[in-house]
Amino acid sequence: STMEETDREAVATAVQRVAGMLQRPDQLDKVEQYRRREARKKASVEARLKVQSYIAPSLHGVAQIDLFFCSTITGNQPDILKKLLQLFFSLFASAFVLYFDCDVLSLFFFLILLFFYLLFGDISVPEIVRETQDLIERGELLQAHRKLMDLECSRDNLMYEQYRMDSRNTHDMNLIHTYFGDMQKLSEELAKQLWMVVQRSLVTVRRDPTLLVSVVRIIEREEKIDRRMLDRKKQTGFIPPGRPKKWKEKMFNILERTVSTRIEGTQADTRESDKMWLVRHLEIIRKYVLDDLLVAKTLLDQCFPPHYDIFNKLLNMYHQALSTRMQELAAEDLEANEIVSLLTWVLNTYKSTEMMGYSELSPEVDVNSLDPLISQNVVDQLLSKYMSTLTSNIIGWLRKALETDKKDWIKETEPEADQDGYYQTTLPAIVFQMFEQNLQVAAQINEDLKTKVLLLCLQQMNSFLTRYKDEAQLYKEEHLKNRQYPQCYVQYMIAVINNCQTFKESIISLKRKYLKIEMEDTLSSSHTNMDATLDIIAKEGCSSLLDEVFMDLEPHLNELMTKKWLMGSNAVGTICVTVEDYFNDFAKIKKPYKKTMTIEAHRRVVVEYIRAIMLKRISFKNAEERKEGAERMIKEAEQFRFLFKKLAAGSGEDTEGLCDIIEAIAEVIKLTDPSLLYLEVSTLVSKYPDIRDDHIAALLTVRGDASRDMKQTIIETLDQGPSQPNPNYVPIFKEITVPTLTVPKLLK
User: Which of 4, 398, 456, 619 could cysteine-pair with 704, CB 3.0–4.6 Å?
Assistant: First the structure.
């Protein structure tokens, strides 16, 4: 029954084979050809079965046939000769047993042929090795590989036969292996040549694409042999030494190392040799990677089979190599500008149209699907380091800028003027240029960093302005110790005042340019603080300049309302000339501050004039003196009015009111009818309600004709009177003190 089952299986298999052979009509013509081929196969199988059943003990000798070749140059000919002779007798005996079976006899005669070849032949594997070596050296890699494959095929078949007959016979295996030892070196030498071509593939593909194609064909052949050998291993357990070679995998490893080396090798400079080393390094990387990928896409892709997916593999290698390099750079102790260069490149340049987003790389390269080169965590660490470095840098820069500016303040040459003729120093320009540069740099990275840098700049500006205010105050104090020094004190103080206006305008401009409207509120309080500080600096500067004026006016002011003055002193003329002279310099003060300055100068001149009256340095003796004095006062008020009208020209400032006070006082002094004195004084008080009793008492003393009782009556009656001040009137008398010595006497 077992035989029947076997027969049935054999028939079924045969039917399947025949059906497989006759799939198409044209195959019917080949039926006779198929039949003869199958008959030959059957005869061959039957002969093999006979040999195996009758001469199993001698089959070991078959493997020894090829071992004959292995020994021709190893000095083992005597052993092989003995073995061959043994084999002859063994096979000869078997041949008789098999009644001269033709297969065994042919093997027998083949052994005789080998025997004579051994004695007289010139067969040599090393000769083929030498030929192959020559082909490799001449760069004829395909032919060299063909010979190498033939050699390997012989060795592998010999080893396989040996393995099949006696897998434990390591001695004979080693004999074959030793004989073909040079072939292994040959394989390594060929591989070395292949890897050299692969390493230079992006250059080779432009100069000699055929060479690259040959290399790829060799690798493909080896891949096929690897697969075949691995399949045989699964079936038989045998695999030749050195298999699988995995040359395709090695090729990709070589490419990967080449890409990494190419990226790392672009750093030509160090920080010590070139401050721009990183910018240069990153630009070279950008250029190389873009060039390489364009070559890979347009040329390299055509030299490889589609399943190698060479462009995408290379793209991935470049991305990985870049990622590794960027992480290495990020881990270095970078300076602030270097951090910016790195982050700008990583976050923007890499995916821009200058690199991975280049039009000719699409659609293969999709920038949106590229992973980040460095993690967000590393980006955050770099940004944090950048902000802390930038903070200390800005503090240092601002301090240095102020120190440099202070050195200018003591120069013996006037400061520069801007295009409108206003004095200035370079401080605001230097500070805001520095801010601008850092903001432009931050804007390259992202919006968020730009806002942070702006907040930092303005925050540091706030602290800086406080120092600026303190330095301006110290400058004034030093000058007061010796008014001859510095020589250009007035001009540099004007420049400081003007700088305040420039700072204000620059802050507004900076915010408008770099701050989003929705962020305005976050800065409003600090902006208000800065404006307030700048106003204080300017106001104190203006005040110190006016102090300068009035220190020069002091001797002339002291002449007012004295006998000398009454006799015809030119004190007011000198005062006007001095003020005008100073205001020639003050014309270099920017408008908002110059206007304030003119008003304040006008006010102070009038205050000092009225103070001179209240000092009671003169008491008119008679109506004639009173008239002369009063007319002189009216004339001098007119001089002041003319002067300040001229100084305020174009500012639209009303300068009339202040000089009117001098004239109103003059009218009280000029009055000839004492009975009308109360009325005149009450008119004065109603206009200027901040006049105090001591002011009226002093005024009446200067007039010189009012008795103590009259003074008392007028003062007491005035207290009950109504006041009708001008709504624009700014109190002036409250600033003026009257010497108190005579007041108690008056009020007794």
Answer: 619
